[in-house]
Design goal:
By secondary structure, the chain is α+β, with helices and mostly antiparallel strands. The protein has one domain: GIY-YIG endonuclease, CATH 3.40.1440.10. The protein is 42% helix and 27% strand. The chain has 4 helices and 3 strands; from the N terminus they run E-E-H-H-E-H-H. Strands 2-1-3 form a 3-stranded antiparallel beta sheet, with helices on both faces. It is globular and about 30 Å long.
């Protein structure tokens, strides 16, 4: 399975990403020295929303679509 997710950062901004292991990715966002610079400087982050997909291609397509949404539309998802 593949997933897209929305994180809320400590500064209340939102981050959209995709992965095949949500828990591992959330741990990376909150604890790792590597990974997304955006979340690294806005810790802690909280998982607010996720969707699952059968293929990586489907997940990436949805991730792109969600990233294009306005903030208020992203908030409506959760």
């Amino acid at each position: 399975m593949y997933y897209i997710y929305i994180l809320e950062c400590a500064d209340k901004t939102l981050y959209v990403g995709s992965t095949n292991d949500i828990q591992k990715r959330l741990h990376t966002h909150n604890n790792s020295k590597t990974g997304a610079h955006y979340t690294k400087i806005r810790r802690p982050v909280t998982l607010k929303y996720s969707e699952s997909f059968e293929t990586k291609g489907e997940a990436l397509k949805r991730e792109c679509a969600v990233k294009k949404l306005k903030r208020e539309d992203k908030l409506k998802l959760f």
